[in-house]
Amino acid sequence: MTSKNKALETYIPIANLIAQTFGKNCEVVLHDLSIPQNSVVYTVNNHVTGRQVGQPFEHLIKDVLLSKNFENDCTANYRTTTIAGKKIKSSTALLRDVKGEVIGALCVNYDLSPLNDMKILLDEFMDTQQEKIEANVEPFDNVIEIVEDLINKMIGNSSVTTLKRKDKIELIQFMDKKGVFLIKGAIEKVAEKLNISKVTVYSYLDAIKKSENE
Question: Which InterPro entries has this protein been placed in (predicted)?
C-alpha cells in the first residue's frame, strides 16, 4: 500500500476478501484518486490485467462516470479488453471519506476467458436442429420400406376384415400422431393394408382432427 491516505487502508481486507471469494481469475485494484497519475495503490491477482502499483487509472471516466449505468457511486459489469486480448468483466465503486468527498475507487476485474471457452463448449453441446417436416415428404432410399414395416407392426396380427370402424380410426390416429402420413404414399399403403379406400382414410383423418379440435 503506497497511498498516504490512511482511510483507503480500511478497504484492503475487502479487496482481499473479494479476490479470495472469486478465485484467481478475479483481480481487485484499489485507487487513490488524490494522485491520478499514480492512482493504483494496491492490487490482488494482478496477473488478470497486469495492473501495477503506481500506474494511473484507465477506465474511470469513460466506462464508469460517463456510463448510463452509473448509480449510487458505482458502475457494475462493464466490458473491457486487455492488451493481450482478454475479455474482462469489470465493476467499479467510488470510495468516499467521512466528509463525503471522493478519495478513491475499488475496481473488480474478472477474466471471462475460461468461462468463454466453457460457453463455446456448452453452446456446441447444446446445439440442436428442429426441422419442420411438411406433408407428402418424398422418402429417401429405403425409408418407405421401413415405414411400411412399421405400419405392418402397428396393425399387428389383427384381422383387417373383422376390425370395426372405431378400431380402424384409433389405429389411423396412432399412425397420424407418429408421423406416418407425412410420407408420400403412406396413405395409399395404409388404405391397402386396412382394406379400405384412400378416401376413407382421409375421412377418418378429418374426423380425428375435428374431434381433437373440439
Answer: DauR-like, DauR-like_HTH, YheO
Strand 87-96 versus strand 40-44 pairing type: unpaired
**Coil, strand, or helix at residue 148?**
helix
Q: Where are the domains of the chain?
A: 6-113, 143-213
Environment class of residue 57 by beta-carbon count within 10 Å: exposed (0-12), middle (13-18) or buried (19+)?
buried
205's grid cell: 383423418
**Contact at 8 Å (CB) between 183 and 148?**
no
**Alpha-carbon dihedral sign for residues 19, 38, 73, 75:** negative
Q: What is the CATH number of domain 6-113?
A: 3.30.450.20
CA distances in angstroms from 122 to 43, 87, 89, 115, 116, listed in the order given = 33, 18, 20, 10, 10
Chain-centroid distance, C-alpha 155: 44
SS3 33: coil
- The pTM of this model reads 0.61
pLDDT, residue 9, reads 92
Q: How confident is the model at residue 141, as a pLDDT?
A: 62
Distance CA 101, CA 4 (A): 16
The predicted-structure confidence for 3-37, as pLDDT tens digits, reads as follows: 668 889 999 999 999 999 999 999 999 999 999 99
Quick check: 119 and 90 in contact, CB under 8 A?
no
